[in-house]
Amino acid sequence: xxxxxxxxxxxRFRELLPDLLAIIGPLRGQLAIGVLLIIVSRCASLALPASxxxxxxxxxxxxxxxxxxxxxxxxxxxxxIQAASSFTxxxxxxxxxxRLIAEMRRKIxxxxxxxxxAFFDKNKSGDLVSRIMNDVEGLRNLVGTGLVDFIGGLLTAxxxxxxxxxxxPLLTLLALAIVIAIxxxxxxxxxxxxxxxxxxxxxxxxxxGRLQExxxxxxxxxxxxxxxxxEAVFAQGINRLLDNILRSLxxxxxxxxxxxxxxxxxxxxxxxxxxxxxxxxxxxxxEFITFTAFLAxxxxxxxxxxxxxxxxxxxxxGLERTREILAEMRExxxxxxxxxxxxxxxxxxxxxxxxxxxxxxxxLQDFSFIAEPGTVTALVGSSGSGKSTTISLIAxxxxxxxxxxxxxxxxxxxxxxxxxxxxxxxxxxxxFLFDGTIRENVAFSRPNATEEEIMAAIxxxxxxxxxxxxxxKYATVxxxxxxxxxxxxxxxxxxxxxxxxxxxxxxxxEATSSLDSESEALIQAGLTHLMKxxxxxxxxxxxxxxxxxxxxxxxxxxxxxERGSHEALLAANGRYADLYQRxxxxxxxxxxAEGEGDTVEG
Length: 602
Prior knowledge:
By secondary structure, this protein is of the alpha/beta class. Helices cover 65% and strands 10% of the residues. Helix 11 (227-279) packs antiparallel against helix 12 and helix 16 packs across helix 18 (487-501).
């Protein structure tokens, strides 16, 4: 079992080696200077223990007091050199490491932002945030202080070993055998602990994700008095993280104490054999004291390998998770997308489209229709019938398993996403606003738009009716996800954003779902202006809002079961007529109930 674990760890390191070299490659100059300064620093640090022999055997033992001043001066000079070089190398490598971390975070964020929508459907945002912000933090140990300690410790150990062998080969070989035993045990232990560090990153991502959901849904949680449940879920995650940390701490403590025991054995052996060597005249007292001082320089890196090794192991685990996400293919890396979409007229055709998120569960089957330029196509049907999937295919969020989605006769699976999506406008059911001002959110679709164009879009969407009443007007900060605005106010900002984009193809997914009847009536003029001359696709549960659509597609179980105008479908007395009548009766009953309530109250 141990051999398999070791082999796996070695194979993983080999897999990660090209990534490590790619990361460190651009920093060769800084690293070379850093290594040189580490050598200077560590050599200077040996001056004090090396002077011990001369102090005891010559200055004190032989009464050569004239050597004391130059000896002390040499030690002071070496100490100053050590301090200066250590400070410089820490500054160089620490700052280099922080720049590297910033660059890696930027690189991962860019990569994640270009991944397909399906990737985000399968991964929690909190885990992705953890990968971007936390996993790369370990690189600081690969390039910064961890690297300094690791290289410095190894260099010091080799220098100390050379001096020890020269002083007493017998004592050195005995001590070295025990040190190698300690190192082998720790190497084995760190190999076994590496999965713990990788699991820790995963658990932290899950906890972060849940915490973000909890904070984002605080109104729902309070509305259902679910604070206790969320506290329990968070506590469970924290306990898993705590258990992981405690297990790793136990491992580190076990290795440390094992090293302490073995160090005691080294000390005892050196004391026993060293005394006999002095009595036999093979060692002087100064040589013995110098030997014990340098022995500490040999053993100290073995102790340090516990903390350094755990840091490097954690860094490699983070790098492995980073590597996994960077291996995901970006949307713009699709080799089949080579054509640049010319200016769109707006003819959209679904040609025998089949689509499934999972192979055995088809969502769309033999789905075919044509939307002519400048027309409005409405999609109606029960939940889960395939309406949103149809919209996703039009927006190129996904590709058909079979068939084609054609825009002006061009298969959009072959065009570059940038050239196509810049001609789209989207108002989704879940209105998303950034934590900025009203003006910034409207201008998001066209940051280079003029002030006149932005204000025109604001007026058409009737955003000005409420924004002008705020003290800061259009500079009002809307809060995270637009929390400081009502549902209807957020929806108007989203519509203004789409108007400003001036798209050729427009997607309205429940664009008026958050509006009451009065607010909906107010912005119908804005929607009419927005849809004019554009190929528009509308999903709406309120069937009264789509009566003017050029064609209505009734979708059930991934198939188009009816199509036609509002009047033609009502006359056919089929599925659409049934849906419309049910909704009409429901709205009528609600209206009557509200009227009776007003009468009683009055």
